[in-house]
Specification:
Layout: H1 4-16, H2 19-26, H3 30-44, E1 49-51, E2 56-58, H4 60-85, E3 92-98, H5 100-117, E4 121-127, H6 134-137, E5 141-144, E6 154-167, H7 169-175, E7 189-191, E8 203-204, E9 207-208, E10 214-217, H8 221-229, E11 234-238, H9 239-242, E12 249-251, E13 257-265, H10 273-290
Parallel strand pairs: 3-4, 3-5, 7-10, 7-11
Antiparallel strand pairs: 1-2, 5-13, 6-11, 6-12, 6-13, 8-9
Keywords: DNA-binding, Transcription, Transcription regulation
Domain HTH lysR-type: 2-59
Family: Belongs to the LysR transcriptional regulatory family.
Length: 291
């Protein structure tokens, strides 16, 4: 009979594509993942992956099993959440999924306050750019710049963040000040990849674009800020991140781009005391900046 402890190794390799990445996700060594996966395949009497020198691809049986194993994962997580929902103790771990930028500016101050008030609560912080599918990936709550389309989750707007265009004086001395309404022609642009934020490739903070000269695409705003500070080009950055940076100059200050920031939480967890404490600390941190 299949058990979850075996299936989770299969699921990690299916998601990650390599033993090394799966081992990192599971917090075990690579040899353990390979050994557990081989034992799982032996028990089933069939291969779950087609192995290549660089990656693991699902076999036909593996593809058939994937949806069922994900259902197992959902069931296990639902049981854990329901068990945690009745926990009124202010201790234990809370897993937060967010972006590196929001983590630096808002989550870290919230955690400082949380540590002072509830030292028995610990946090696992998972950073990415895409919206985390917290139903499947095990985070207790997420803070994101896009609203998930899932009626089963509790979703609350934390803030609306202002973004603007920035460059360095050194870049402007070399390339000249851009002219409003000329589509930033003749300038180097630093942007999120088109598949992540397609609207920026048509309208870059109020400036319409036509065949933009994008010299760097990056999925991290912190790295886009670093690239802007290095004089590589013009970046679209959060005002809270860039306005206080003496290396950066705001271009067209009246041009603003707005991003809603959302808190996403499983309903099963809203009654857990430690989760409520974390949510309160996060709300306080955002309201300190945005009222």
């Amino acid at each position: 009979m299949m058990n979850w402890d075996d299936a989770r190794f299969f699921l990690a390799v299916a998601r990650c594509g390599t033993l090394r990445k799966a081992a990192s996700q599971l917090h075990v060594d690579q040899a353990t993942v390979g050994r557990r996966l081989s034992a799982f395949e032996d028990a089933l009497g069939s291969k779950l992956f087609i192995r290549t020198p660089k990656s693991f691809a699902l076999s036909p049986l593996g593809e058939e099993m994937l949806a069922d194993v994900m259902k197992m994962e959902n069931a296990v997580q639902a049981i854990n959440r329901k068990a945690a929902s009745g926990d009124e103790s202010l201790c234990g771990n809370v897993r937060i999924a967010t972006t590196d930028t929001l983590a630096e500016a808002f989550v870290m101050p919230a955690l400082q306050d949380l540590r002072e008030r509830y030292p028995a609560i610990t946090v696992t912080l998972l950073t990415a750019v895409n919206i985390a599918d917290i139903s499947y990936h095990g985070a207790d709550l997420a803070i994101r710049g896009a609203r998930p389309d899932d009626d089963e989750l509790i979703i609350k707007r934390l803030a609306t963040i202002e973004m603007g265009l920035y460059a360095t004086q050194h870049y402007l001395a070399r390339r000249g000040m851009p002219v409003r309404g000329e589509q930033l022609r003749g300038h180097d642009l630093l942007m999120f990849p088109r598949e992540l934020v397609p609207r920026h490739w048509n309208n870059f903070c109020g400036e319409a674009l036509h065949e933009p000269n994008v010299v760097l695409q990056c999925n991290s705003q912190l790295l886009l800020r670093s690239a802007t500070r290095s004089g590589l080009g013009i970046g679209l950055l959060s005002a809270f991140l860039a306005d206080k940076d003496p290396e950066l100059v705001r271009l067209f200050p009246e041009n603003k781009d707005w991003v809603d920031i959302w808190l996403v939480l499983h309903p099963d967890l809203q009654r857990a005391a430690r989760v409520r404490a974390v949510v309160q600390a996060l709300e306080t941190s955002f309201s300190a900046h945005y009222g």
